[in-house]
Amino acid sequence: MTLLYARGSRTEALTADDLRAGLEVALEKFQAERGVCKNVLVIPPDHTRFDSRAGEITTMFYQLLGDRIKHILPALGTHAPMDDEELTHMFPGVPLELFRPHRWREDVVTLGEVPATFVKEVTEGIYDHPWPAQVNKLLVEGGHDLMLSIGQVVPHEVIGMANYNKNIFVGTGGYAGINESHYLSALYGMERIMGRCDTPLRKVLNRASELFCQKMPIVYIQTVIESLPDGRKMTRGLYIGMDHDVFFEAGKLAAEVNCTRLDEAPQTVVVTMNPSKYRRTWLANKAIYRTRMAVATGGKLVIIAPGVKEFGEDPEIDRLIRAHGYRTTPEILERVEKYPELRNNLSAAAHLIHGSSENRFTVYYAPGPLTKQEVESVGYQWADHVAMSQRYQVANIDTGWHTTADGERYYFIKDPGLGLWMHKDHPSARI
Predict the structure, then answer these.
(1) Same-domain check for residues 309 and 408
(2) What is the count of structural domains for the chain?
(3) Considering 235, 257, 279, which residue would you say is the last residue of a domain?
(4) CA distance 301 to 244
């Protein structure tokens, strides 16, 4: 059994009815081979991936399966747990008592290790440590006869294209696995992987799936969503399956609809970050990741993020960001060697590398409550979000090229988290 359902193209516009029909087909095929499922675990993303339609799909599964769903485990990774308001908004009609928080420092088991020889080979010798495959203990101890892993395939800074078994090994993963995965990708170079399916970390996770997950009844439900210039979201694909094929099929379509190549590298890029999703630079820095290959050398990136009030997703990571700042790769590598607190939190070190412009362009952050002193202490320039919103008229324009009243030409992006932008001559533009 490979693909249970596949429908997608760059011209599709899948409706709720289309999604539900796909889920029904896949469930019928799975149960025809495995028998009726009575103990189901659902693993959706959290509210920061609201546009994936994973919340809507989870609600559909609840309508289809009812009390056969025993647990819902949002794949938080390192993110803060969702509160009741966020759960109700993303998963309407689903009882709150079904949800379980993922505690990435505590609630995990190690399935085994991907050998160092394999990791070294796929990272071209850059990283030569074994990688621990960790998951939330509920996946091992819950006795589930079906696990529904739901999410969106979209460009991603750590793995190239998000979702598939990243939802398992990172979304429900543990301290060691997440730290190592993020760091090895940062060392390999994010601009070498974004928008690509066959990346070093993906190869490591796929090997872990082959070694440790063959007996787990995991079905992957993956959407491909295009963000149109006016901000509307179009569902271009739905892919459901149990092995690598489901990811690579979805990934091909995501590379078509989520990657934008610009003929000209903008001197100024302006982005807006939805305040209901982006409250910390830990996530809002997607503004940097997804545009860095487009911004001209010597240019500037203006991030209008009125919801951002902190740096890290938990107090320790927040402290580390404040202590070390967003520095160049060589500077962070030196600090990893010098400071045990950073060496023991490699995902934080990777985040600091990812959030740096490497001194190639200037980042202007226009947050909510974060002060000018706080923003500039971590290496960015501060800007006022009200003034920037007015200057660049972000409430009244679509994604694309624009010019201010005083003649500044800029490229504007509504919520860059759903795509990847690059200059056509960037070395990684040939995806």
Answers:
(1) yes
(2) 2
(3) 257
(4) 36
Rounded average pLDDT over 262-279: 95
Does 431 reside within a domain? Answer: no
Query: How does pLDDT run across 199-256, given as a tens digit for each residue?
Result: 999 999 999 999 999 999 999 999 999 999 998 999 999 999 999 999 999 999 999 9
What are the tens digits of pLDDT across the range 341-394? 999 999 999 999 999 999 999 999 999 999 999 999 999 999 999 999 999 999
Two tokens at 42?
């659902």
CATH of the domain at 350: 3.90.226.30
101 and 238: one domain? yes
**Residues 116 and 239 reside in one and the same domain:** yes
Quickly count: other Cβ atoms within 10 Å of residue 135's Cβ: 28
318 shares a domain with 208: no
**Domain assignment present for 430:** no
Residue pair 199/162 in contact (Cβ under 8 Å)? The answer is no
Given 257, 279, 308, the domain boundary residue is 257
Name the percent of the chain lying above pLDDT 90: 90
In whole angstroms, what is the distance from residue 382 CA to residue 392 CA?
16
**CA–CA distance, 417 with 47 (Å, rounded to integer):** 13
* Domain that residue 199 falls in: 3-257
For the chain, counts of helices (H) and of strands (E): 17, 18
Q: Is residue 428 part of a domain?
A: no
C-alpha dist (Å) from residue 114 to 129, 200, 201, 384: 9, 12, 11, 47
Cβ atoms 282, 311 nearer than 8 A? yes
DSSP secondary structure of 33-55: HH----SEEEE---GGGGGGTHH
Instruction: Read off the pLDDT band of 427 (50, 70, 90).
Output: confident
Domain match, 336 and 379 both: yes
Q: Are residues 221 and 131 in the same domain?
A: yes
Q: If phi over 0 gives left and psi between -120 and 50 gives alpha, with beta otherwise, what is residue 140?
A: alpha
What would the pLDDT profile of 143-165 be if each residue is shown by its tens digit?
999 999 999 999 999 999 999 99
Q: How far apart are CA 307 and CA 275, in angstroms?
A: 4
Query: At 52, which CATH number?
Result: 3.40.50.11440
The encoded tokens of residue 377 equal: 């202490």
Query: How is residue 400 written in tokens?
Result: 């694309």
Q: At what angle do helices 175-188 and 346-354 cross, to 10 degrees?
A: 30
